[in-house]
Amino acid sequence: MELNSFYDFYANNWITNAIIVVGATVIALLLAYLLPFFDNKICSKIGLNLQGGVSSSKNAGKSSLIRRTILNAAFVIYLCFLFYLVLLARTPNPDYVVRNAGFSIFTMTWQDIELPEEEFIEFYLNVMVFIPMGYLLPYIFRWFRNHAWSRSLLMCFVSSLVIENLQLITKRGTYDTADVIADTFGGFVGVALYMHRAYTLTNPEWKKDLKYYRRWKKLAKNGVLFPFAKRLSISRVILQATDEDEIWNFYVKDLGFQIKKIIIPKDVTQTNLLLSMGKTSLEVHCLNKNLDIPAQSIVLSHHNVDGIKRRLDKANITSECGTDPYTNHRILTVMGPDDTKIIFLES
């Protein structure tokens, strides 16, 4: 089947138009409500925890990989369908067509200018087509989930621009600013459905968390550092050690930290090392003499704790599995020089 636009989906009778509109709406709502429901049910049955806690299944890593593969495949299928619908299924126009409709569909309506009902149906279907994108991006991908609103909406907007430009270049369709608005709004609805359904399902205590967050925000807004809270993070941890060679062998040789700088103060036996790994920096003061060092701990977060565990085992570094009492996430604990605890927290 080939078409010039969504117009070709419609018949000139209200029954067919109603079926198209209702069908598109039902598909979008089924995606929003049934996907997280069955996903949560299946994962609960196989012992895979989607709420950030410890999974009861021994094959949690494998099950999680299979789940991600299925969801990624579903997203690829959706993209293929979208690409087919907006490009491949359309017959080329004889010339380039640009239509700067924008919000005119609404302004003309407010001015009592009668428009064909197909205009509204096309706008509505464009919204429906992009709801899955706004919904699936934060549902599947961690990067979008961390900033669901801003990143997902930006991706929907950029995707819509790419589609409109491809339609213009290939002459398969019309470059229409109203479509960009409709697509972006569809992404907004998709993210809203994700927050309403999927996020609340995998975060059952979201109301309590929101309550605590609002209480903290009210109390902390007069704090000195509150204006900088979003950009403020711990960039360096300071440790003390007794033996420089042990620090070198464990942190640099075994774990792979990079030595950024070495400082040897005058008239003392102490050596100061600045080590880094990604965005994490360790400042180690090597006293080079036998002293009782107080208890020290480092907490590093990463989503692939299973992968870290395998690498530690391969390097013959003993690690102990456990559960973080504050987040209920999995942790790996490794004992370093001077009984320093290096804790890997599953994020």
From TrEMBL:
VanZ-like domain: residues covered: 75-195
Signal peptide boundaries: none
InterPro entries noted in UniProt: Glyas_Bleomycin-R_OHBP_Dase, Teicoplanin_resist-assoc, VanZ-like
One Pfam family, short name: VanZ
Keyword Amino-acid biosynthesis applies: no
Segments passing through the bilayer: 14-35, 70-89, 123-141
Keywords: Membrane, Transmembrane, Transmembrane helix
Claim: Membrane is one of the keywords in the record: yes
PANTHER family with a match to the protein in the record: MEMBRANE PROTEIN, MEMBRANE PROTEIN-RELATED
Designated name of the protein: VanZ like family protein
Organism, scientific name: Pseudobutyrivibrio ruminis
